[in-house]
Design brief:
The chain is α+β, with helices and mostly antiparallel strands. It is built from 2 helices and 10 strands.
Length: about 130
């Protein structure tokens, strides 16, 4: 049954106003639905969506929480940098970024933080 259902990512925000401003002013996204003052739904490509909701738990996850697919990673990274986004640099076994971008047989990826400490990324498959 679940394979036929829509999936929605869920992102926490300690300060929903600050987060909304970041998603609007930096990422260029507006909520498509406002469930209430503490729950904002953002719709992206191909029917995908994410919920941004108010909670004190924001910024505690140490993993990527949301990722956008792109066919031009370098272009997207450059565009976001021009808007003030700072990309993370990693140097772990099996993962090393150069100028904010990691390349592997699975493709390319770049990670950044939102104002709430959530780890977001862009990826490009080969």
């Amino acid at each position: 049954m679940l394979k036929e259902r829509e999936v929605m990512a869920v992102l926490p925000a300690k300060d929903i106003s600050r987060a909304r401003n970041f998603y609007r002013d930096v990422l260029g996204l507006e909520p498509s639905d406002t469930l209430d003052e503490e729950n904002l739904v953002y719709r992206c490509g191909n029917g995908t969506a994410f919920l941004l909701y108010l909670t004190d738990n924001a910024g505690t996850a140490k993993n990527t929480q949301l990722s956008w697919a792109t066919d031009n990673l370098e272009g997207e990274v450059e565009d976001l940098r021009s808007r003030g986004v700072v990309f993370e640099d990693y140097d772990f076994p099996g993962l090393k970024t150069e100028n904010g971008i990691a390349t592997s047989s699975a493709g390319k990826a770049a990670w950044f933080l939102d104002t709430e400490g959530n780890i977001l990324s862009l990826f490009e498959m080969p």
